[in-house]
Write a structure and sequence with these properties.
By secondary structure, the chain is an alpha/beta fold. The protein folds into two domains: about 40-170, no CATH class; about 195-245, no CATH class. The chain is built from eight helices and eleven strands. The strands form two sheets. Strands 3-2-1-9-10-11 form a six-stranded mixed β-sheet. Strands 4-5-6-8-7 form a five-stranded mixed β-sheet, with no helix packed on it. A hairpin with a 2-residue loop joins strand 10 (about 230-235) and strand 11 (about 235-240).
């Protein structure tokens, strides 16, 4: 019998939702359950610092937790370098501290507020003094992809037609249309987040678990045994069956 593996969609600073999801997992599979977090731990929600603290604590306790890199996590990590690094994938005019992206809320969770007007160098210096080194190390430790025999866990998706070993990190944390529009089979079932949907959807070749927690909507948890999938909540498992064929 295949051991279950649990996956949690984009958390976006929602610590209370994360704690509820972890309670549901422990009730279903026990404290030693393997859990894959699909990235975007920060931004938009009220307690990004608390979410990172919780994930660090779990890993320190020896929990079987795998933390995947999201595009928002990478933006934060790059902001905390000696000179803030901008992600060139973003639209012109956008940056991590743009009011639509959530970096402002993340810094507020560390006690850093941004006055009007403000210079980037001043905000950056204050952030470097406020964000613990353990959090910087955590962000730098995130892995772009996790695989099992049947599944690939990644934040955004993969580029179709390219082997899993040759995937580019930019695609793994940012891709949308080429991945979403591909209806054929992938090498394995892809479990991802990144693009909010109203409810988790199984597309046959991929499963999207981002249900908009960053905007105050529910955080989604799924269970996989091989390629069989269920959603998990306080009432237990609910079958997640393909709505499309790959």
């Amino acid at each position: 019998m295949t051991a279950p593996i649990y996956a949690i969609g984009d958390i976006h600073g929602q610590l209370e939702m994360l704690e509820q999801a972890l309670d549901h997992i422990e009730a279903d599979g026990g404290p030693d359950s393997q859990v894959v977090f699909l990235g975007d731990y920060i931004d938009r929600g009220p307690n990004s610092r608390g979410v990172i603290d919780r994930l660090i604590t779990g890993r320190t306790e020896g929990r079987n937790w795998i933390t995947v890199l999201g595009n928002h996590d990478r933006m934060f990590s790059w902001f905390l370098e000696d000179a803030p690094r901008h992600d060139p994938h973003m639209l012109i005019g956008y940056h991590w501290l743009h009011d639509r992206l959530g970096g402002i809320e993340t810094l507020e969770s560390y006690g850093v507020t941004i006055p009007e007007p403000a210079r980037l160098e001043d905000v950056h210096a204050e952030a470097l003094g406020a964000v613990p080194r353990t959090h910087v190390d955590f962000l730098q430790s995130l892995q772009a992809m996790h695989q099992t025999d049947d599944l690939v866990f990644v934040h955004a998706g993969i580029r179709p037609g390219i082997s899993l070993e040759q995937q580019n990190e930019n695609d793994l944390v940012w891709i949308r249309q080429p991945f979403h529009q591909h209806t054929g089979p992938h090498p394995k079932l892809i479990v991802h987040g990144h693009t909010p949907v109203d409810t988790a959807i199984h597309y046959g070749n991929r499963v999207n678990l981002d249900t908009g927690a960053g905007y105050g909507k529910p955080l989604t948890t799924a269970v996989f045994e091989g390629t069989s999938a269920w959603l998990l909540d306080s009432s237990g498992r609910h079958a997640l069956t393909p709505e499309y064929s790959a």
